[in-house]
């Protein structure tokens, strides 16, 4: 085994473990918090978390075996099923991210009419469209028999065999349309929604900055350290929205664009994609599943509070059972000593 292959295998294992733990933590928070379940965006978060868990359980182990064996990990039937699931799951996950961005745009730009514009029924309809959209491409791929093992990516994915060169035009059209309606569409929605959110956030920051400056001018006897602290908080407030939006859009582009561009470039007959590059883009593609819980959930105060309360309850129960065990062992020791003295 070469060093690059070993590093790629370790990367897949680490990404799988982190993705499974973090996405399961998100689901655990939903089961334990009625407040999180009452929010409409929770439907999109659940859909995204389920997609990431399925990708972690089904596709990542298959890719790991493909890298380790340098060959097809299982038979043709299983490989076609894994390829079908990858197309469906990744498309559904991207559309869930786009739905979350649109929900945030409506909540920030139209706060007074948010409850009427985004209801549970509307969210369920969006999720149903996401499933229908994903099933359309995955079923098309299955019927055209374009799923199989790709040595370039060491995984079961959308793939056209060399003996099916006559279908190259149809396959290229399908691939281009698939990535345009998933990656490109979702990126366009993310950029539109979060740019609108950023514009509103900056306008609010300007209003707060004006009030802050006027207040500091009126308070002549205020200590210089207090002024510096207020100005520092003012600067952090301006940068906070920009940082969050850069994380939302940047993580999407960083994780998905290398893989998508590689899949489009390989359609050219004269281009050969190196195997290590293909697997590396696949690992980066999988990394999005492990980063989504942090980007959308676990770094937010509501989720952190629920997660901390779950951990603290678990720790208290563990300490309670340990105290009961220690008490019972002490009583058993005392009884043994009493019996020994009597005898």
UniProtKB/TrEMBL annotation:
InterPro entries per the UniProt record, alphabetical: GPC_Orphan_Receptors (IPR051880), GPCR_Rhodpsn (IPR000276), GPCR_Rhodpsn_7TM (IPR017452)
Where the protein is mainly located, per its record? membrane
- Indicate the transmembrane segments per the record: 6-30, 42-68, 88-112, 124-144, 176-197, 245-265
What does the UniProt keyword field contain?
Answer: Cell membrane, G-protein coupled receptor, Membrane, Receptor, Transducer, Transmembrane, Transmembrane helix
| Stored Gene3D superfamilies | Rhodopsin 7-helix transmembrane proteins
Q: Which GO terms describe its biological process?
A: adenylate cyclase-activating G protein-coupled receptor signaling pathway
- This protein's superkingdom? Eukaryota
Q: Name one GO molecular function term.
A: G protein-coupled receptor activity
Q: How does it sit in the membrane?
A: Multi-pass membrane protein
Subcellular location, record wording: Cell membrane
The terms describing its cellular component in GO are: plasma membrane
Record protein name field: G protein-coupled receptor 78a
Lineage, top ranks = Eukaryota, Metazoa, Chordata, Craniata, Vertebrata
């Amino acid at each position: 085994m070469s060093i690059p292959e070993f590093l790629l295998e370790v990367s897949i294992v680490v990404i799988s473990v982190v993705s499974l733990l973090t996405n399961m933590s998100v689901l655990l928070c939903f089961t334990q918090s009625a407040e999180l379940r009452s929010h409409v965006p929770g439907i999109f978060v659940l859909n995204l978390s389920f997609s990431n868990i399925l990708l972690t359980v089904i596709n990542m182990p298959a890719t790991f075996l493909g890298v380790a064996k340098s060959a097809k990990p299982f038979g043709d039937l299983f490989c076609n099923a894994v390829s079908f699931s990858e197309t469906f799951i990744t498309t559904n996950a991207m559309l869930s991210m786009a739905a979350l961005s649109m929900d945030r745009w409506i909540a920030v730009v139209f706060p007074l009419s948010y409850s009427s514009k985004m209801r549970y029924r509307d969210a369920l309809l969006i999720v149903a469209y996401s499933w229908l959209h994903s099933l359309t491409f995955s079923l098309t791929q299955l019927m055209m028999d374009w799923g199989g093992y790709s040595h370039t990516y060491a995984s079961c994915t959308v793939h056209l065999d060399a003996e099916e060169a006559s279908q190259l035009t149809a396959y290229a059209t399908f691939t281009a349309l698939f990535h345009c309606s998933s990656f490109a569409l979702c990126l366009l929605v993310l950029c539109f929604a979060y740019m609108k959110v950023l514009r509103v956030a900056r306008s609010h920051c300007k209003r707060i900055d004006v009030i802050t400056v006027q207040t500091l001018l009126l308070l002549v006897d205020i200590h210089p350290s207090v002024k510096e602290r207020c100005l520092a908080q003012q600067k952090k407030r301006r940068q906070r929205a920009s940082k969050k939006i850069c994380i939302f859009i940047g993580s999407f582009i960083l994780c998905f664009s290398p893989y998508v561009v590689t899949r489009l470039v390989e359609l050219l007959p004269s281009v050969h994609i190196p195997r290590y590059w293909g697997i590396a883009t696949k690992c980066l593609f999988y990394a999005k599943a492990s980063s989504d819980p942090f980007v959308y959930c676990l770094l937010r105060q509501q989720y952190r509070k629920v997660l901390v309360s779950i951990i603290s309850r678990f720790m208290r129960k563990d300490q309670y059972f340990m105290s009961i065990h220690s008490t019972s062992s002490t009583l058993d020791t005392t009884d043994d000593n009493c019996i020994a003295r009597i005898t």
